[in-house]
Design a protein that fits this description.
Layout: E1 8-12, H1 20-30, E2 34-39, H2 42-52, E3 63-65, H3 71-84, E4 90-93, H4 112-140, E5 143-149, H5 161-181, E6 186-193, H6 199-202, H7 207-217, H8 226-237, E7 248-251
Parallel strand pairs: 1-2, 1-4, 2-3, 4-5, 5-6, 6-7
Helix pairs in contact: 1-8, 3-4, 4-5
This protein binds nicotinamide-adenine-dinucleotide.
Length: 262
C-alpha cells in the first residue's frame, strides 16, 4: 500500500515536465494519492492537460485554471474542488515569478514594483491558498501544506535578488501559518531544494554553475533530482511527518551546511 493512499492532494505549479511540481505529482501518484492540478495561464493549459493525460485514471483528475494573482480564480478553484472532492488533505505550492530585470544586476537597483510582484506571486499566494484550502482541510480533519524555497535567504546568491526577498517572506510565512493553523491540525512546511534546471530555475543566471558546484562540493557529491524533491514531499504529505510543522527541510545533498568550500 502506498504512503499516500486515501489522500487528496492539490498540486499547484506544474508548467512542464521539468517542473518540481511534476516531480512531486508523480511521486504522490506512485504512493497512491488522488491528484488535482492548476494551470496559471491558457498558454500553459495544454502542457498541463497533456502531462496529466499520462497519469492513470486521468479522466477523473481535476485540472483547473488559477492565476494566483487573481483572488477570484483562487476562490473559483476551491469552489470547484469543494464540488468535486468536498475535502482536501495536501496542498503543494510550487509557484514563483519575478521579472528578469529584478533578479540580475545590483540589488540596490531592484524596482518597487518588481519587489511587490515577486513577493505577491511567490509568497503572498501561500497565505491566500491556505485561506482558500482551510474549509476543505477542516472537513478532512487536518491537512499538510508545503511550498518550495531556495537557500538564498540566509546566504547571498548572485542573481536571485527579488526572489530572495520573496523566499524570505515565504519561509517566515511557513512559521506563522504553522502557528496559526496548527490548532486545526494543518501542518505547513517548506522544502529548500538544490538548484534544478527548470523554467524558473533557468531564469536565475548561473544555475548551471550552481549545479556544477553542488556536484563537486556538496557532502553527497551529486546533484539533486525532481524525483528526490518529490520523495521529501511524500514524507511531508504523509502521516509519517505528523509531528513536523513550521520547518524548512533541505533537499540539497547537504550543500547548506558548508561555509567556505575548498
Ligand atoms: N529550479 C530550482 O532550482 C529551484 C530551487 C529551489 C526552489 N525552487 C522553487 O520551486 C518552485 C517551482 O519552480 P520550478 O523550478 O519547478 O520552475 P517552473 O517554472 O517549472 O515552476 C514555476 C511555476 O510557477 C507558476 N506560476 C508563475 N506565476 C504564477 C501565477 N501568477 N499563478 C499561478 N502559477 C504561477 C508557473 O506556471 C510555473 O508552473 C518555485 O517556487 C521555485 O522558486 C526552484
Amino acid at each position: 500500500m502506498g504512503l499516500l493512499e486515501g489522500k487528496k492532494a492539490l498540486v499547484m505549479g506544474v508548467g512542464n515536465k521539468r517542473s518540481i511540481a511534476w516531480g512531486i505529482a508523480t511521486a504522490f501518484q506512485r504512493e497512491g494519492a488522488e491528484l488535482a492540478f492548476n494551470y496559471a495561464t491558457d498558454r500553459l493549459k495544454e502542457n498541463v492537460v497533456e502531462l496529466v493525460g499520462t497519469l492513470p485514471e486521468h479522466e477523473r483528475i481535476p485540472v483547473m485554471p488559477c492565476d494566483v494573482s487573481k483572488q477570484q480564480e483562487i476562490d473559483a478553484l476551491f469552489a470547484e474542488l469543494e464540488r468535486r472532492w468536498g475535502t482536501l488533505d495536501v496542498l503543494v505550492h510550487s509557484i514563483a515569478f519575478a521579472a528578469l530585470e529584478d533578479l540580475k544586476g545590483r540589488f540596490v537597483e531592484i524596482s518597487r514594483e518588481g519587489l511587490k510582484t515577486a513577493v505577491e506571486i511567490s509568497a503572498f499566494s501561500l497565505v491566500a491558498l491556505c485561506r482558500g484550502a482551510l474549509p476543505l482541510f477542516e472537513k478532512a480533519g487536518g491537512g499538510s501544506v508545503m511550498s518550495l524555497t531556495y537557500n538564498a535567504v540566509e546566504r547571498v546568491v548572485p542573481s536571485y535578488n527579488s526572489m530572495a526577498m520573496a523566499k524570505a517572506v515565504l519561509e517566515a510565512e511557513t512559521r506563522y501559518l504553522a502557528a496559526d493553523l496548527g490548532p486545526q491540525n494543518v501542518r505547513v512546511n517548506a522544502i529548500s531544494a538544490g538548484p534544478l534546471k527548470t523554467l524558473a530555475g533557468s531564469a536565475v543566471k548561473g544555475i548551471s554553475a550552481a549545479r556544477d558546484l553542488m556536484e563537486a562540493k556538496a557532502p553527497l557529491r551529486r546533484n539533486i533530482t525532481q524525483e528526490e524533491v518529490g520523495n521529501v514531499a511524500v514524507f511531508l504529505a504523509s502521516d509519517w511527518s505528523r509531528a513536523v510543522t513550521g520547518a524548512t527541510i533541505f533537499a540539497d545533498n547537504g550543500f547548506n551546511i558548508l561555509g567556505v568550500t575548498e
